[in-house]
Amino acid sequence: MVAASLERHEPLALEAGVKCRSPRGAYPCADGHVWGEPDLGHAAEVMQQVAARRLAMAADPEAAAVDPSRDSEVLAVYREPFSLAAAGARYRARLEELWAKRATSLPEV
Fold it and tell me: Domain map of the chain by residue range?
């Protein structure tokens, strides 16, 4: 995962936490998978950076005006696929797909 850094607009790599193996049978089809335990200290640090950046932009409108995270074109790229309409369309398509599979796999009575 990548987040923007405070002082410079370069990606800040979020460090992975402790790697853990999924216990056998804990999740469907996940035996032996490795996942990361969150590092709460690092998460808090990144959240503090985000808060500090927002406060700095609130105090300096000129800096906020040139901040890439406020660029309307950049925001549009993220807003469109996560809009209610787009998310609803994805859910509807998936539900229709599942319903069609269910209809063909049910035994006739």
Answer: 1-67, 71-109
